[in-house]
Amino acid sequence: MRLISWNVNGIRAVMKKDFANSLHTMAADVLCLQETKAQDDQVIEALESINGYHIYCNSADKKGYSGTAILSKTEPLRIQFDMGIPEHDQEGRVIAAEFDDYYLVTVYTPNSGSELKRLDYRQQWDADFLAYLKQLEQEKPVIVCGDLNVAHRDIDLARPKPNYNKSAGYTQTEIDGIDNILASGFIDTFRHQNPEQVKYSWWSYRAGARGKNIGWRIDYFLVTEDLVDRIGHTDILNDIMGSDHCPVLLELAV
Q: Is 61 a catalytic residue?
């Protein structure tokens, strides 16, 4: 199973940037998207030329903001939207697809914002999202993918020192959030397979950051420990263009 996650920074925008060809190149069995920035009907309309996938989308109440989607060649047993927590469920940030032997959850984690104005909310989100994942895990193993909006360690961003506790995505509060997920039994698949590799999944649009590879690794595939033996190839597909993020890949043995 080729599982791919990609923050597309607007589904309608990325469709104009050779998305269909990129999808063909990636050959995803399941593609999880974040930041679709469109209502459900707009996502379906944007993807109308894409064949061979069941499409599920979760849009924010606020138009043109946030949003997630899952495109799957195999029809899931069940689709669940959001976490069932009203304060978190207004922005279309979570979709869980149940398959025979695992749940696949895609998430677009809230950004802590400029001047870290949303950091307290982010801390509560992280705690509630972990509780949600552990609840799912009581039924089946869990795969989590998406834009987690945090670089875990110094190796995961080009300039750790000037960003630490100053920039959204690299505060100790956010690092603690992903530490808690990993401490609860989840495995960071890319880092598990590539402990020393420096590779990023997001670059600012400013100052030619992508060309200079001044980036951050903030897009992940995490799996519960009982799926570790099924982890195959993992990668960050930074030759795929169209967004300020690039796709990340997990190949899972059937």
A: no
